[in-house]
Amino acid sequence: VSAAQQEDHLIEAALQPNIELLVISNRIATFDPLQPKTGGLAAALEPLVERSGAVWMGSSGKLGDGNEPLDIGPHGEGKVAKLDLPREHYSGYYEGFANSILWPALHSLPDRMAASAKDYESYREINKFVAGAAFHFRDRDAIWVHDYHFLPLGAGLQCLGVDKPIGLFLHTPWPAPDIMERVPNHRELMQSMLAYDLLGFQTNWDLDNFRACLHTHLGLEVEHGIVISARGQTRCQKFPIGIDPNQFAQHASESLAKQDLYISSLQKKLNGAKLAIGVDRLDYTKGIDVRIEAFGQVLAAEPRSIVLLQIANPSRTEIEAYKDYKRNVESLVSRVNDEHGTDEWRPILYENDPFTRAQLACLYRAARVGVVTPLRDGMNLVAKEYVAAQDPNDPGVLVLSKFAGAAEDFDQNEALLVDPTHPDEIAAAISKAANMPREERIQRWRSMINKLEAYTIHDWSAHFVRELDKSRVGARGTVPI
Ligand code: ADP
Question: What is the pTM of this model?
Fold first, then answer.
């Protein structure tokens, strides 16, 4: 079967229960074919909207006074519904509770938390507001909510009387009970999550932590994947997000043939050195600083042997911790370049702009080493994209943090697993990867690509929707938002 047929088949699989789905996420895809698509979520959900008639609701990117009507437009078979979030609560919700409290806590980095009780109020208010807007679509068969922005959204929907299966997929990790304890109102938050019929996590590690948190903080037990609360049953399951490996492989071979200008100038800049690549949002969870230090060590041991192309797209730029991190990474890059570079050769090429998926695929393929070293990550799609884009006859090697969700999919015989806080370990792995014999590279790569093909992003969304459909509800109580 062709790739298109295969995709049709999978979308059909997602539709099997013939579900009219409402999808809610903080951001929605731009749906502009000319714009580079960042993120795998758009790739996963766009086909659900375009071809299977789902409604996708999320922020319009504009702020309002809370009275603007939903901007609903058609997209393929489905609809996109854009919402102006209320100005009054936006910053407390987005920069505050979601990204300065939940984000660091969920990534087990409590020292990065900047708590403010007021922000929690804004977070609740925005969740209530989004629930109110989603009420417009109460006739849909099921609701699929995405990510940590909306932990209490399911409870808000139920308060309004929505009586359809509601699921949440959490793209981030879930931390251990002692870290969760430091989140203001953590009990209330977790209690509200039990309004969902289905809670999806990336890995077993996350599931185990969530189970431990329920036990410690709410005195509830998960048995056979189900937790029973006053509201009813919540199923907790693992859905490790994937990518579309064929798309990356195709992009990689097509764009290499096209003689991309960036790539040919890159070859000149390498000047005989091998290439390593890092692609991240500029976020302190990504371990970019330690990676650069490690790279300095590789260059000290093997001068001029390797160049690191570090693509770091600025993110959440209003938040102080992100501004500091950006400055810190920039000064580390300059230091390593000053120490190990010359007038005509720079060991770290540092790029901040977005690339198209085709360009990224091509750069992944050009790199002998993919360096993915987050301190903690829900999954890390870059790790999977790097593998998918490799040349089957001459693949590169993945250096992967053992604390990325992807490390539950790829083992020590496949990727080179490292502790992302230890520059020595990362340096040794980069050096081993750069010098690995071809046979070993092929063997490791084959094993990884087989896994990627066995559970693609389309399988992931089909799997979640099928499981959600099993949660047809009987009588249920409500959980206060
Ligand atoms: P996160 O979701 O925390 O940003 P992931 O690695 O899981 O981390 O996903 C990042 C996604 O964004 C990947 O699909 C990657 O290809 C894409 N991406 C990151 N940086 C860029 C960039 N500069 N240009 C284009 N796409 C990017």
Answer: 0.94
